[in-house]
């Protein structure tokens, strides 16, 4: 199941992707006659993702074909949702050669940072380059969406607490970071420095997350590419690791690292592409 958030009549509403268009979730009733939430974050925080997924798998996908749709070409995407409790990222997570994974010290831990919700924008929104910050980079990343509150979970339990996966573009003020490498969060925290969407794809739709390929794309050119398999800290480990030192809440986001950054300038168009995901695209202004 693929979910998105669309701008419709000045509102941001959650919708389900179908091959013939998007169906607004509040356009039909739940099996018990209740209404579905109008926003994706409500759906996640109210614990309704499992119910919706079960309905979808048990015939709901066919019922959607008989409901009114918003055509793909008319869809205007918003951020999947606003104001997540936490936006977490890890850095330097890929190796180029799978053989390097065998050399990783088992005592090593991920490099982490957090971003404020004020960085958040959605597909098609402009990345605004701040004045006097020098070089700005953008990085494409697979991103985990937490679906259930959890603490101290194991790697094997991680898939059960994840609502799904989406894509992100993570921007960094590289010169600011170079000035003070210990204060990475500052370089990551400027307004518009985090874009995510346009689809949330549930865990059951991805046969093996390790087979996904992530591309950082600048002005239509694939500049960097790597496979999730080549991560030092893979998605299920990442969820379990973070749950060891903080409570993860529904809607929390964890970026999993990038195959490589690109320098962005005024007029550029930067993208995250992952296999069959709909691309995440943002223009650059400044």
UniProtKB/TrEMBL annotation:
<dbReference type="InterPro" id="IPR011234">
    <property type="entry name" value="Fumarylacetoacetase-like_C"/>
</dbReference>
<dbReference type="Pfam" id="PF01557">
    <property type="entry name" value="FAA_hydrolase"/>
</dbReference>
<keyword id="KW-0378">Hydrolase</keyword>
<comment type="similarity">
    <text>Belongs to the FAH family.</text>
</comment>
<dbReference type="InterPro" id="IPR036663">
    <property type="entry name" value="Fumarylacetoacetase_C_sf"/>
</dbReference>
<dbReference type="InterPro" id="IPR051121">
    <property type="entry name" value="FAH"/>
</dbReference>
<feature type="domain" description="Fumarylacetoacetase-like C-terminal">
    <location>
        <begin position="86"/>
        <end position="285"/>
    </location>
</feature>
<keyword id="KW-0479">Metal-binding</keyword>
<protein>
    <submittedName>
        <fullName>Fumarylacetoacetate hydrolase family protein</fullName>
    </submittedName>
</protein>
<dbReference type="GO" id="GO:0016787">
    <property type="term" value="F:hydrolase activity"/>
</dbReference>
């Amino acid at each position: 199941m693929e979910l998105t958030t669309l701008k419709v009549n000045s509102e941001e509403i959650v919708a389900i992707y179908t091959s013939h268009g998007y169906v607004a979730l509040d356009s039909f009733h739940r099996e018990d006659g209740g209404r579905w939430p109008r926003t994706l974050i409500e759906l996640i925080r109210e614990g309704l993702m499992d119910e919706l997924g079960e309905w979808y798998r048990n015939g709901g996908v066919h019922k959607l074909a008989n409901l009114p749709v918003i055509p793909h070409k008319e869809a205007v995407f918003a951020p999947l949702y606003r104001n997540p409790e936490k936006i977490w990222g890890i850095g330097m997570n890929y190796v180029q050669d799978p053989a390097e994974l065998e050399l990783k010290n088992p005592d090593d831990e991920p490099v982490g940072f957090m971003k404020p919700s004020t960085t958040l924008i959605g597909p098609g929104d402009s990345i605004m380059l701040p004045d006097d910050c020098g070089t700005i980079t953008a990085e494409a990343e697979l991103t985990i969406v937490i679906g259930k509150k959890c603490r101290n979970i194991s790697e094997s339990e991680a898939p059960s607490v994840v609502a799904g996966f989406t894509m992100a573009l993570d921007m960094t003020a590289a010169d600011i970071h170079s000035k003070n490498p210990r204060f990475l969060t500052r370089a990551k925290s400027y307004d518009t420095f985090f874009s995510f969407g346009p689809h949330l794809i549930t865990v059951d739709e991805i046969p093996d997350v390790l087979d996904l390929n992530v591309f950082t794309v600048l002005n239509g050119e694939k500049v960097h590419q790597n496979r999730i398999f080549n991560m030092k800290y893979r998605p299920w480990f990442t969820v379990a690791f973070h749950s060891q030192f903080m409570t993860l809440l529904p809607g929390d986001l964890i970026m999993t690292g990038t195959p490589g950054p690109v320098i962005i300038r005024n007029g550029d168009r930067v993208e995250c592409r992952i296999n069959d995901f709909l691309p995440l695209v943002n223009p650059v202004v400044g």
